[in-house]
Amino acid sequence: MRLDARLADPASWLPASAWVNREMKAYVPSTFQVCYGPTASIHVSENRILSLFPAPAEDLLRAAPETHASNDPGPFGCRDMTTEVARALAQVLDDAGFDRAPFVNTSVLDYAFEPSVAIAPGPIENTVTISFEPYLPHGKAICSPCG
User: Fold this and answer.
1) Domain range for residue 62?
2) Beta bridge partners of residue 133, listed in sequence order
3) Which residue in 48, 74, 138, 141 is a FRET match for 119, CA 20 to 30 A apart?
4) 61-79 burial, b if ≥16 CB within 10 A, otherwise e?
C-alpha cells in the first residue's frame, strides 16, 4: 500500500488499539515560543526592543519566561507563552494595526513594524519583527527561519 493511501486512511492498516479517540482533530499547541527583534543584524538591548511595542504587548512579553530560540539566537529575544497569552498578544498587535508579515513559513504567525523612533543610531533598516512559533508535541518549537 502506498504511503499517501496509508496516511489518508490510517484505520485501514493500524490496529484498533492504536488510538483511544478515533476522531481526527487539528493539533493546537499549548505553548508558543514568541521571538522578537530587529531585522537588521545589529545588537541592541532587549529592553530597547520591548519598549517599541505598545504597552499591553510589552507587559505580556515581559511577564512571560525568557527562553533561547530553537534556531540561531541572533539579535532576538524569545519568550514562552501559553496559547491563551499568545492569542492575547496577537490581538493587541492586531488592534494596534501591526501588519502580519508573510515570511517563509506560512504556518506561523509573524508581524513586522517600523517603530516611530530609530532602533539604533546610524543608517540601518528600522524594522522589528515578532514571530509566534508553536511548540510541537515532542517539546521543540518550529524553526521557521530554517526553512
Assistant:
1) 27-146
2) 33
3) 141
4) beebeebebbbeeebbbbb
Nearest 5°: the CA angle 86, 90, 91 is 115
Find, among 125, 101, 97, the residue nearest to 112 by Cα: 101
**How do residues 79-128 score in pLDDT, each as one tens digit?**
999 999 999 999 999 999 988 876 555 567 888 887 777 676 665 667 88
Supply 57's cell numbers. Answer: 504587548
Let me know if residue 17 belongs to a domain.
no
Please report where in the chains the cell 498578544 appears, as a residue: 89
Establish how many alpha carbons lie within 13 A of residue 113's alpha carbon, considering only the half-sphere containing its beta carbon. 19
Q: What whole-number distance in Å separates Cα of residue 34 and Cα of residue 110?
A: 10
Query: pLDDT (tens digit, 9 = 90+) per residue, 35-89?
Result: 988 877 777 788 888 999 999 999 999 999 988 765 554 557 899 999 999 999 9
Task: Determine contact, residues 146/138, Cβ cutoff 8 Å.
Answer: no
Identify the residue whose cell numbers are 508553536: 134
Residues contacting residue 18 through CB under 8 Å, at least 6 positions apart = 10
55-63 helix and 83-95 helix, angle to the nearest 10 degrees: 160
Number of domains in the chain: 1
